[in-house]
What does this fold into?
Amino acid sequence: MTATRSVLARIAAGALRVAAIGSLVTFLAAPGMAAAGPRATAQVGNLILEAPPRYRGEVERLADFSVRLLPRLEANLGQRARHPFRIVLIPEGPLDAELRAIDALAPRSAAGFLVGSARLGAIRLGQVRGYPWDDLPSVLAHEVAHQLLHDATGRELPRWFAEGVATFEGRKWGMRDFTVQSTALLSARLPRLGQLEDEFERSPTGSQRAYAASFDFVRWSERKYGPGLIARVLDEASANSFEDAWTIATGVPLAQAESRWRRATLWWHRWLPVVASSGSLWLGITLLALVAGVSRQRRTRALYRQWAAEDSPPVPEPGSSDPPPTHWVH
It folds into this structure.
């Protein structure tokens, strides 16, 4: 019965998504919407960045970042965007009609999200430091990766794969990820990859656990099966089921790869801390996590100060650490 409710909930969510996207497209195409307000815009390849005028500096700096970002993502994923797509920066405070319509596409917990079929995404500037993000550029990289993943096969990929790849392409694995993964495994079992779909939706803690596990599996797989794995899987997935694509790209069935990863991650994130004396080790992990958090905050503040020094209005101070969005937005 629980499984049936879960399936029905996902079907209902899908129906709501289609309705929301259709309403948004109709709304944005309505007469007079072009006059919603001027936008600061920049285009790099097929990526179009937009924001209210006072955030022109952020748009320009993200455009400069994207000049390096797009070639890297295209090489890593073996895919270019098929058509132009928009990423809109949504500030805190009052919004015009168009920004309100875009903002309404995702739950308030979402720092960034993208609707691949509508070729439209957004980043909420006040929420760019909640897990699994690092800063504004890392959220942008995550969302751009989602659009390229959507364009790679033209169909939906497993949620754990899409989120794991987007996070992997957005930033490096760090102490925050190790802490989230290890803490989760000391108090709960490691979910199967196929069960992570529900974990993303279950709760803030479940969402963090799902992001960390997906990120960890993609990272482990790249080391185990060689660089270029993601591009190989995507290339094969355009003509095969995802499971067959994985087998062709790696030489082993997905279930076997998952089993190997589970043994490795359980050792590193559950048994090693226990064997190595939980008291002293976890004190060390906690201290390292605090140091990593302080270092990340310093980098972000330095970025804001640099932007302010260039006579650009500062990005609003992040005010939420809520987990990322539900399964139909990223």
User: Anything to note?
Assistant: The mean pLDDT is 79. DSSP finds twelve helices and five strands in the chain. The radius of gyration is 20 Å.
